[in-house]
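Exercise 7. Given the components listed, write out the predicted structure of the assembled complex. Treat all entries as one system.
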Amino acid sequence: MCSLLGIEVPIIQAPIGSATNPALAAAVSNAGGLGMLALSWRDPDEIRPMIRETRERTDRPFGVNLGLAWPQDARLAVCLEEDVRIVSFFWGPPDRYTDAAHAAGATVLHTIASVAEAKRAVDAGVDAVVAQGWEAGGHIWGTVATLPLVPAVVDAVSPTPTVAAGGFADGRGLAAALALGAAGVWMGTRFLASREAAVHDLYKHRVRQAAETDTLYSHLFDLGWPDAPHRTLRNSTVERWEAAGRPEPGGRPGEGEAVAHFADGGAVERYSDVIPLPEMTGAVEALALYAGQSVGLISEIQPAGDIVAEVANEARSVLERLARPR
Ligand SMILES: Cc1cc2nc3c(=O)[nH]c(=O)nc-3n(C[C@H](O)[C@H](O)[C@H](O)COP(=O)(O)O)c2cc1C
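Answer.
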């Protein structure tokens, strides 16, 4: 996978929505991993300068990610015009987008959550699959945990590489993923706790402090993206909803309430799918704090390049220790 993607260590900074930016992606790529820009909701006019800025910050490969819950032809066209070489898709069949990316010479990764879906993606021509387990942070496509999912997908699609996603936050996890037959890891939550991630400090600190038991899999933060299960940290919005007996949309406490504001004054409602951004004001703690169960492994906010180096070094020493004769 490293030669397929042109990287040195098999660590991919997962697309983590609006938390990705050129600084984060370039820091990861400069450290030898693969940085990714998540562009699903960006205005096509915003995409071009983001790609150019990333390229100014690194001469190494980086990728872009597009969620297929929405038509992405215009955004993909801009990425390909800007000569992006690695494209990842999520949440829907990748077929026609894969053809378009391949026609422009790009490598395609696609996130799946079952063996059947992995086979379909490979038949559609994708170059690597990302097997996302249920313990992942953010929006979750399937219901199988990473440990049983990854080796089953590896067996089904090999020699097409499988990248393991969901629950990886350190070098032990990378070594374990390699032991399962994966070609590398796709880490989201760990990179939220990076200095470069474009999220509010409160969110980073909640990620740093949370335990592995502090996340919830639900459909709760559904404004902007309905019927899409996701994993978030438990916060005041979750607690109020649970205290009210987990009512359905329409009957949830505080619906329609503006809990925070963007820098331009625009309101962010309770139950919105928007994450706390650095310049937001108000009760940002009540917004969707997407995070995976790997939060329990994170105790520091670090430069993203240090995260890549630390994970790679720890994986190397774990693998050496395991290989040593007893
Ligand atoms: C804040 C956040 C935003 C995310 N946004 C996206 C996205 O835009 N596109 C995507 O394919 N996956 C997205 N994901 C899922 C990640 O790419 C990845 O599958 C997940 O973080 C892996 O599990 P981990 O959090 O345990 O590392 C997001 C995850 C988080 C935590």
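Discussion: The chain has a mean pLDDT of 97. The domain at 2-196+303-323 is CATH 3.20.20.70 (TIM Barrel).
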